[in-house]
């Protein structure tokens, strides 16, 4: 069968997924990051991201806590992990937003100085921004969901997080600590975050945080699309839709 034919696409994807899974298996509990996976398998990083999203969703791989690495989960008697209660709470809202916007919708939470994506819901528009996936970690504030969480923290806490993350921010589209502090102020004055061209080139995200009774951020929901789909008016509309869904969660 011609490898470039549509009929070959399914088997080719399966073979690549198995190569990624085998690499994770061979490296044991310490796991591998996406860059290492690309080097060991010869598969390009964008494809690794897509394959990892499928493996994570299927429970065949898990993030290694506190790192950017992933490990295989191949034990036959391994129980599937319990869904995060924040995902159970928000999943209907995520699906409604994906249907309404047509774009990718993300559930993001804070873990120390990082944001963690818990879920990605894909919309119906033909071009989707999918580089972020369940289990992915990045410095808090790099993406629109993480920025909504960061901006909801007290000044001292937020500024300390930015300072601790400053050395690695340049990896995300040339982000700087100064620019992140500016984004925090913009998010607070606007009432929602708008972050573009940092974690993912050519993308722009809008995010809002859900706060608890003490004003602390619990989670954030963000919508990310190609920049052409995100003029200022649509950013405001999407923020309003996210806030309406978060208000339903809080009642």
UniProtKB/TrEMBL annotation:
A GO molecular-function descriptor: DNA-binding transcription factor activity
Entries under SUPFAM superfamilies matching the protein: GAF domain-like, Winged helix' DNA-binding domain
The organism's taxonomic lineage, starting at the top: Bacteria, Pseudomonadati, Pseudomonadota, Betaproteobacteria, Burkholderiales
Pfam family, one: HTH_IclR
Residue ranges of domain IclR-ED in the record: 72-251
Gene Ontology biological process terms from the UniProt entry: negative regulation of DNA-templated transcription
Keywords: DNA-binding, Transcription, Transcription regulation
Protein name: IclR family transcriptional regulator
PANTHER family listed in its UniProt record: HELIX-TURN-HELIX TRANSCRIPTIONAL REGULATOR, ICLR FAMILY (PTHR30136), TRANSCRIPTIONAL REGULATORY PROTEIN (PTHR30136:SF39)
Domain HTH iclR-type: 11-74
């Amino acid at each position: 069968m011609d490898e470039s034919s549509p009929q070959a696409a399914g088997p080719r994807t399966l073979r690549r997924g198995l190569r990624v899974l085998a690499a994770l298996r061979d490296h044991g509990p310490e796991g591998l990051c996406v860059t290492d996976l690309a080097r060991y398998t010869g598969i390009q990083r964008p494809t690794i991201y897509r394959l990892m999203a499928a493996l994570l969703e299927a429970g065949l791989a898990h993030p290694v806590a506190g790192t950017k690495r992933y490990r295989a989960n191949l034990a036959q008697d391994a129980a599937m992990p319990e869904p995060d209660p924040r995902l159970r709470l928000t999943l209907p809202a995520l699906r409604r937003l994906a249907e309404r916007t047509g774009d990718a919708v993300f559930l993001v939470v804070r873990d120390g100085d990082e944001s963690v994506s818990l879920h990605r819901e894909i919309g119906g528009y033909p071009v989707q921004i999918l580089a972020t996936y369940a289990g992915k970690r990045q410095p808090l504030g790099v993406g629109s969901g993480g920025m909504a969480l960061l901006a909801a923290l007290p000044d001292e806490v937020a500024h300390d997080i930015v300072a601790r993350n400053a050395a690695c921010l340049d990896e995300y589209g040339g982000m700087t600590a100064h620019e992140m502090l500016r984004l925090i102020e913009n998010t607070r004055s606007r009432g929602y975050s708008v972050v573009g061209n940092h974690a993912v080139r050519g993308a722009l995200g809008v995010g809002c945080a859900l706060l608890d009774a003490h004003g602390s951020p619990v989670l954030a929901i963000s919508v990310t699309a190609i920049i052409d789909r995100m003029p200022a008016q649509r950013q405001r509309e999407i923020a309003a839709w996210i806030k309406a869904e978060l208000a339903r969660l809080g009642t």
